[in-house]
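Submission sheet (multi-component)
Chains listed below:
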Amino acid sequence: PEVALRSGSARPMPAVGMGTASFPPAPGATKDAVLAAIEVGYRHFDTAAMYRTERPLGDAVAEAARCGLLRSREELFVTSKLWCTQCHPDLVLPSLRETLKNLQMEYLDLYLIHWPVALKPGPLTFPKRKEDAVPFDFEGVWRAMEECQRLGLARAIGVSNFTTRHLDRVLAAATIPPAVNQVELNPAWQQRTLRAYCADRGVHVAAYSPLGGQNWDGTGSNAVLESEVLAGIAKARGKSVAQVALRWIYEQGVTSIVKSYNKERLRQNLDIFGWELTDEDRLKISQIPQKKTVTAWGLFSQEGEFTSVDPADLDIV
Ligand code: A2P
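Outcome: structure written.
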């Protein structure tokens, strides 16, 4: 299954995509995992300048084309993202060109602003202090994103980690409105306010950390994979907890960007079609307490200065 995007000439976005954020970067493992993913049927890949996985993703795609796993680039939906240090009007196009060079591709299907935070131009690093941020010229940066689409280098453009407040600003400046907002979203962090806002404005929502993320903060807990509610539903349906989470996301009309570097789990995560949750399952999932699941990332965390949390969503159960 796929969803058509409102703007751009991107091919429709397959409802499940493979994420490639893995720290520290492991180019060999990324390349192997992407090849395994292509083999088991993934046609949607998500990367970012920040992840340093553009190159191994591009290498894997080139190899897949060489050995006949893919007929052409056109079969794929590829997303990448503009990092905070690149969020300056005159750096957008050169950053996209660099991304395309890394990927060995002529165009992206979707180019996103990674965070609504601008940092001084320089290496692709995380901000350490609030003072590292510089004023974000939303209008200028969005115009440059629009130019990328007009030039055909990005078939659609969008944003990531934007709250309704940030989206208001971009929508007010946009000639081409953002096609997508990619945010952290899963049964334990459902973001209903944000989703309703996006639905009203034709912005498609994509979910990262659909399984609760990769234990970024080292606490060893995961509100999705360890959810008793989801475990009960999984048992009753004869599915895995991951499949229940991904199926729920799909039923909400949201695309999942799910990361696994394991072939069996890659296969499992794609196998969420042809069955449904029941109304009772959906009701139970709607009652899961809500909290942003990725708790690391300092300034980007729930309490952080650059949080992507809409306070309204914290109270919704
Ligand atoms: P692995 O790569 O070893 O499969 P996210 O929510 O960000 O997509 O996080 C996915 C995390 O959960 C990864 O660390 C991944 O590890 C793991 N994972 C992915 N698919 C499954 C699955 N079907 N069951 C259990 N864990 C999974």
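Remark: Residues 85 and 119 are 5 Å apart (CA to CA).
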